[in-house]
Give the backbone structure.
Amino acid sequence: MTPFTIETGPGIALAADNIDTDQLIPARFMKRSRADGYGRQLLYDMRFDADGNESPDFPLNQIRTAPKVLIAGANFGCGSSREAAVYALVDHGIRCVIARSFADIFRSNAQRNGLLTVICSETDHRALIAHVEARPGCAITINLDAQSIRAEGLDAIHFDIDPGVKRRLLLGLDELAETLEHVATIEKFEGNYFRVCPWVRPNC
């Protein structure tokens, strides 16, 4: 997992509420291998018309460089629990989604895949949406260590994050990798346990 420290890149606003996982990655694309990537399929039915042509009014189609920051409305990532919705965002190049709120399972999947999810206040969200809608593709800087969002001409926005999630993102660790930081302690415990209780050691 790529560590998240300071990321600066284009931002786009998609202010709609209740963007669900089937919109993020339509089910018909989920037969693809993860190795093939899901980036082009992100929000496919919103980005493209029935003939596969880009919808010019859709925010992702208004900039030529893939965005790093997506600002959405409330309840982002609702619907089914498909982890491929996070894959689509990450494969498209998005490192951070800012919203008023997130579906719990989506947010958990995001954290496991290096995608930062930020909840900000209604006032800050309104200001950020207005700023980015007026300047599609403007540079936004997310500093995870400082827990801040900055864009030229906009007051800094500060956000809260669980300390454990923050540490894993900064170090590029998922939960399994974080557990393996303690492998020496785990192996020592296991060795002592089998010496005291040898009958529990598997025979296979």
The chain has a mean pLDDT of 92.
